[in-house]
Amino acid sequence: MTIGAVLESLKVDFPDISISKIRFLEAEGLVTPERTASGYRTYSEQDVERLRYVLTAQRDRFWPLKVIREALDALDRGLTPAGETPETVRPQPPLPAADPDVPSAASLTRTRELRMTRDELAGSAKLDGATLEALETFGLLRPDATGHYGEAALSIAHTAAGLAAYGIEPRHLRPFRTAADREIGLVQQVVSPHRGKPGRAAKADPTAEILRLCIGLHTALVKDGLNQA
Q1: Is the same domain home to 115 and 69?
Q2: Residue 229 class from Cβ within 10 Å (0-12 exposed, 13-18 middle, 19+ buried)?
Q3: Using alpha carbons only, what angle is made at residue 148 by residues 144 and 153, rounded to the nearest 5 degrees?
Q4: What is the CA radius of gyration of the chain?
Q5: Worst-scoring range by mean pLDDT, 73-77, 93-97, 205-209?
Q6: What is the value of pTM for the model shown?
Q7: Of 84, 136, 152, 217, which has fewest CB within 10 angstroms of its CB?
Q8: Which residues of 111-138 are buried (b: 16+ CB within 10 A; e: fewer)?
Q9: Under a CB-based contact definition with an 8 Å cutoff, are residues 88 and 56 in contact?
């Protein structure tokens, strides 16, 4: 859009707006339109909304340019407006979006009745005997009392097979078992005092929800680490 078109667009809500006012806001660094090869300003829809935010903050909230500049910087950094009038409130950190990589509490407690033999598990994940034995040695695979493996073991075996394609051996995966056991121990430490207390109304077992939060924290830390690398 040309500066004239921007002026006409804004005049509906801001009758006193002028070209000189728009250029002043540009000079203050509150909006940075692109320029053509011949030097003419061209404004995007985002530029117009930015100007609308500035003008509304001045008119309705009487914000000085310093405060408006801080608010625009916050918006540029991903913070979001909040409140009854999104165009005029100070930007706030958003609530975290639900991470699709984190399982729900219900899925953590929902398992199929699956019991596989050692050979069946190895065949499904295409693991040789030595690798399967190494996964057991390092505590990643644990048969039940009858020597069978369940649904979790199936996921572990297939994941280990996928990592093996990148040269990651069972011995490298031992820290995952250690971390998982520590998370489980923490959850049990938190939940145990609240179980079986006489005279207390029965409440839903929070174990799965606490585990979900722990897994969410682990996932967020890994993603943060990758972003910092």
Answers
A1: no
A2: exposed
A3: 80
A4: 29
A5: 93-97
A6: 0.60
A7: 84
A8: eeeeebebeebbeebebeeebbebbbeb
A9: yes
Total number of domains in the chain: 2
Residues 16 and 62 in one domain: yes
Q: Which amino acid is at 26?
A: E
Helix (H) or strand (E) holding 107: helix 105-109
Q: How confident is the model at residue 190 (pLDDT cuts 50, 70, 90)?
A: confident
Q: Average pLDDT, whole number, for the chain?
A: 87
Q: Are residues 118 and 224 in the same domain?
A: yes
Do 171 and 67 sit in the same domain of this protein?
no
Do 167 and 219 lie in one domain? The reply is yes
Same domain flag for 138 and 53: no
Instruction: Retrieve residue 140's tokens.
Output: 């990643």
Statement to judge: residues 124 and 217 lie in one domain:
yes
Q: Which domain holds residue 54?
A: 3-76
pLDDT tens-place string over residues 89-139: 678 777 778 888 888 888 877 766 788 999 999 999 999 999 999 999 999
CATH of the domain at 149: 1.10.1660
Same domain, 67 and 123: no
3-class secondary structure, 197:
coil
What CA–CA distance (Å, rounded) separates 177 from 181? 6
